[in-house]
Specification:
- The chain has 407 residues and is mainly alpha-helical.
- It is 76% helix and 2% strand.
- It has 15 helices and 2 strands.
- A two-stranded antiparallel sheet has the order 1-2.
- The radius of gyration is 21 Å and the shape is globular.
């Protein structure tokens, strides 16, 4: 039964991230080249995911934990989200496109938390099995990008939303095959502080944990410059099959996810997270240099893409494990809710908004061939911003004391 369960959960993770990988990377290019939206509008659109992340704790805490079985709620969210994605291309003005995108993100983001909690609830050995199942997320993201790029060639087309919508409906129907997971708190009152993860604010009394949270928020500001601008950058450079080429980032993600336990065991949290932040700074300096380096430009961009595994796993996954270790059993869920709210909610919203403003400010009055933006200016600011976060983290964060092993 566990083997069958692992197969089902792996397929679920694959479909879930296939949806995300089908549209998230290329949406900025579609908005800029097809809908002719400006940089501020593109940044705001990427911030829609952040709004969904800020809504998700209410949705999961109030509805999922009290009234509905997780697999049924996943089915409803998947099918309804698919319908919204099919409607999205019909909106060609920002006033219509943006609210519809927010509504869709509010249906998709809760599936991330629900899928993880359902998996952890039913696996008998989650510490061993869940990371392996989670690698199918990266595979799904790669498959979504490759299908859009190589098969459909749809980075500039609304076909990306039809592809994601079809996968979303498939995810909803497939969710009905997952094991029954009844609501955990039927008939119980759920405090607002518990829903928002505010119980975990007590951890901020620890100076190192407070520094960690501040640095995680600050790193999100330069971080989202990559997600908002990267696909448009390589499109202006004349790249073909951009979504497929950028999916190399998820190949790197799988490799470094498998290396992460070794890094944490040998280097600890401080050095591992430091390497993750350093990788982000290196990525942006490579991108800032790539446009002016005629001979090495393409190679520098590919190196920046392949750094994604270090950037993501050594920073975010290691950070989530650090939070899990610092929290006790009573507030573990609240602590993960807090870090998710900081990373995917507030940090995402601020970072995406500023990235869109930066793109608008660096738009050239007269394009140079296919280049319509001052990309060196766009990339250099997040590079130096990341260096600032790196210095603060190294000076003030302290490695947590090792806890005695359980007998």
């Amino acid at each position: 039964m566990q083997n069958l369960l692992k197969i089902k959960l792996s397929a679920f993770m694959f479909l879930q991230y296939f949806i995300w990988g089908s549209w998230y990377v290329s949406m900025g290019t579609y908005m800029a080249t097809t809908l002719k939206f400006g940089g501020q509008e593109i940044g705001a659109a990427y911030g829609a995911f952040a709004i969904g992340a800020m809504i998700a704790p209410f949705f999961v805490g109030i509805i999922a934990d009290r009234y509905f079985a997780s697999e049924k709620l996943l089915a409803v969210l998947g099918i309804f989200g698919g319908a919204l994605l099919f409607l999205l291309p019909s909106f060609t003005t920002f006033g219509g496109f943006y609210p519809m995108l927010i509504l869709y993100c509010a249906t998709y983001v809760p599936t991330l938390a629900l899928g993880n909690s359902l998996s952890l609830h039913h696996l008998t050995n989650p510490k061993q099995d869940f990371p392996l199942i989670k690698t199918l997320s990266a595979v799904g993201w790669i498959a979504g990008g490759v299908t859009l790029s190589l098969v459909l060639q749809g980075e500039k087309s609304p076909v990306q939303f039809y592809l994601a919508g079809t996968a979303s409906i498939a995810l909803g129907l497939f969710s009905l095959t997952l094991p029954h997971t009844p609501p955990k708190k039927t008939g119980k009152n759920v405090r607002l502080a518990e829903i928002l993860g505010l119980d975990a604010l007590a951890l901020l009394k620890k100076p190192s944990f407070a520094i960690f949270i501040v640095c995680m928020f600050l790193i999100c500001i330069p971080l989202y410059f990559y997600f908002v601008n990267m696909n448009l950058y390589v499109t202006e450079l004349g790249w073909k099959f951009t979504a497929a080429k950028m999916s190399l980032a998820q190949v790197s993600d799988v490799i470094f996810l498998l290396l992460l336990p070794v890094m944490l065991r040998t280097l600890g949290y401080k050095r591992t997270i430091f390497i993750g932040i350093l990788a982000w700074a290196t990525r942006y300096f490579l991108l800032a240099t790539s446009l002016t380096s005629a001979d090495w430009g393409t190679m520098l961009i590919f190196v920046a893409i392949l750094l994604h595994g270090v950037c993501y796993d050594f920073l975010f996954i290691a950070g989530q494990l650090y939070v899990d270790e610092e929290a006790n059993d009573r507030m573990r869920g609240a602590a993960q809710g807090l870090i998710a709210f900081v990373l995917w909610g507030v940090g995402n919203f601020v970072g995406s908004t500023l990235a869109g403003h930066s793109q608008a400010l660096h738009t050239l009055s007269k394009p140079v061939g296919t280049i319509a933006h001052d990309w060196q200016g766009i990339w250099i600011y997040p590079a130096w911003g990341t260096v600032g976060v790196l210095v603060v983290f190294w000076l003030f964060f302290r490695e947590p004391a090792k806890k005695p092993s359980a007998p």
